[in-house]
Amino acid sequence: MERDGNFALAADASCCPAETAEALIEDVRRGLGRNPAAARAAAVRLVTLLTLSAATQAAGNRGGLAPWQKRRVDRYLRRSLHRPLRIEELAEQAALSASHFARAFKDSFGTTPHSYIIGLRLELAQRLMQTTRDPLSQIALACGLASQAHLSKLFRRWLGETPSAWRRRHQTEAPLSPTPTP
User: Fold this and answer.
1) What DSSP string runs through the chain?
2) How far out from the chain centre does Cα 176 lie?
3) CA pair distance 179, 67, nearest whole angstrom
4) Distance separating the N- and C-terminal Cα atoms of the chain
5) 40-49 contacts: CB < 8 A, separation 24 or more?
6) Rounded CA gap, 105 and 72, in Å?
7) Residue partners of 21: CB distance under 8 A and separation at least 6
8) C-alpha to C-alpha distances, 161 to 156, 165, 173, nearest whole angstrom
9) Average pLDDT over residues 112-119
10) Would you call 20 exposed, middle or buried from its count of C-beta atoms within 10 A (0-12, 13-18, 19+)?
C-alpha cells in the first residue's frame, strides 16, 4: 500500500481485503479530528470494499438448496432415519436430479448427504441411549443402522468411544423409569 501524507491508500483491495479494510478504518479514525473530508473518503472506500466483498461471497454461495428445499429435505431425513435412504429419493424431495442435489446439498449443509445422515443417526442413537434402557442392538436398528457392530464402528469413529462407554458416562442420576419404594 502506498502512503499519501498520513493516510494509507488502499489501491488494490483484491490483494488482501482484510489489510485494506484495516488501513481504511485507520484512515477514518485518524482523519476524523484532522481532515474530515479525507475521513469521509476513506469511509466511502471502506463501505465499497465491504459491499463488494459481501456480493462476492453471496455469488460464491449460489448453487445450494433453496430454504424450502433445505427444510423439506431435513424434515424428510429426520422422519426416515429408521430405514435405508437413497440419494434419488432425497433428490425427489427437492425436485432435483440426484447429481445436482448432491452438489447443492453439500453447498447448503457443508457436508455430503451420507455424512449428514450418519450424524443424524448418531444423534438419535445418543438420545435413545439417554432416554431408554433398550439394548444397543435395538437402538442400532431403530436408527437405521445394520447392526450393533455398525453402530459401534460409526460411534467410535465419530465420537471417539464405544456406545456402551458413552452411555455409562452420560447416564443421569435419576432412574429412567420409576422404581417402587418399600
Assistant:
1) -EEETTEEE---TTT-HHHHHHHHHHHHHHHHHH-HHHHHHHHHHHHHHHHHHHHHHHHHTTTS--HHHHHHHHHHHHHSTTS---HHHHHHHHTS-HHHHHHHHHHHHSS-HHHHHHHHHHHHHHHHHHH----HHHHHHHTT-S-HHHHHHHHHHHHSS-HHHHHHHH--SS-SS-----
2) 32
3) 47
4) 82
5) 42/7, 45/10, 46/21, 49/10, 49/13, 49/17, 49/20, 49/21, 49/24
6) 12
7) 46, 49, 50
8) 5, 7, 21
9) 95
10) buried
Reference 16, options 28, 24, 7; nearest CA is: 24
Cβ-in-10-Å burial (0-12, 13-18, 19+) of 113 comes to buried
C-alpha cell at 61: 454461495
pLDDT digits (tens, 9 = 90+) for 31-89: 778 878 777 777 777 777 777 655 555 545 567 999 999 999 999 999 999 999 999 99
- The length of the chain, given as a count of residues: 182
What is the crossing angle of helices 87-94 and 98-109, to 10°?
A: 80
User: Within 10 Å of residue 45's Cβ, how many Cβ atoms?
Assistant: 19
pLDDT at 50: 75
